[in-house]
Structure formats: structure tokens, C-alpha cells
Specification:
This protein has 139 residues and is mainly α. It has one domain (31-138): Four Helix Bundle (Hemerythrin (Met), subunit A), CATH 1.20.120. Helix content is 79%, strand content 0%. The protein has helices at residues 2-22, 34-52, 55-68, 80-101, 105-138. Helix 2 (34-52) packs antiparallel against helix 5 and helix 3 runs antiparallel to helix 4. The protein is globular. Residues 12-29 have low confidence and may be disordered. Keywords: Signal. It comes from Rubripirellula amarantea. Residues 1-21 form the signal peptide.
Length: 139
């Protein structure tokens, strides 16, 4: 029994610590901007539309994402790479819109995957270059 407790107690302690560390406190403000919340909401709605084959839902939310990508708050950097990332995102959104118009669920799904990849690539770029961008703001 002692041997069992020697293994279980430390493991349980670690699991509790990990579980509580994974969830931020409820009173902690979110670092996600309102524009990002909109983008996430629209992306989730597209996924829901794809799973239910609701082409109007897919199209409306892909158009909203396309429109968001033209907002001034979207263009947080003035670099060639960032501009290219935005154009690729817009092309992927256009692909989703066209596929939804054609009621082609497979092409719309591939467009959604491309859209998601664009998001991940851009955010990765932003995190990688964050220190450089912060230095530019200070200078």
C-alpha cells in the first residue's frame, strides 16, 4: 500500500498542477483582440457550415472573413511578407466563397483548410518576428 501511495500521490499532484495551470483565471483579461474574436467566430461558423453542408453559412462567413482582411486593424505590419500572407488568406477565402456558390463541399473544405493554414502560417510569422517588430516600434 505504501508503494502504491508513493507513485499515486506525486502523479496526482502533477496532474492537478497541470490542470490548474492550463486554465487561466477567469478574471484574467483576454489577450485576443476584438478583430481576432471576429475572425475566430467566422472560422468556426464556416466549419459548422461545412459539417452540415450549409452553403449559405459557409459563404456568408467566408465573405465576412474576406472583408475583415481589408480592415485597417488587420494590417498590423507593413512588410512584404505580411502583405503576401494577407493576399494568400484572401485568395483562400475567395476559394471558399466560390466553392460554396457552386455547392461543392469538397472544394469548400479544401479552401477552408487553405484558409486555416494561412492563419497558422501568419501567426507563426508574427510570433517569430515579434521581437524585431517591437524594436521597430520603439525606434
Amino acid at each position: 500500500m505504501k508503494r502504491f501511495l508513493l507513485y499515486v500521490v506525486p502523479i496526482a499532484t502533477v496532474l492537478v498542477a497541470v490542470a490548474t495551470a492550463a486554465d487561466p483565471p477567469l478574471d484574467q483579461p483576454s489577450k485576443i483582440t476584438p478583430l481576432m474574436h471576429l475572425k475566430l467566430d467566422k472560422s468556426k461558423a464556416i466549419l459548422e457550415g461545412l459539417t452540415l453542408e450549409q452553403f449559405d453559412t459557409i459563404k456568408i462567413n467566408a465573405r465576412a472573413l474576406r472583408l475583415l482582411s481589408t480592415e485597417s486593424g488587420w494590417n498590423v505590419l507593413q512588410t512584404k511578407e505580411y502583405a503576401a500572407q494577407s493576399r494568400d488568406f484572401q485568395r483562400a477565402a475567395d476559394l471558399v466563397i466560390e466553392a460554396a456558390d457552386d455547392k461543392d463541399i469538397h472544394r469548400a473544405t479544401l479552401g477552408y483548410v487553405a484558409l486555416t493554414v494561412r492563419c497558422v502560417e501568419c501567426h507563426s510569422y508574427m510570433r517569430k518576428h515579434r521581437v524585431e517588430f517591437m524594436k521597430l516600434d520603439v525606434e
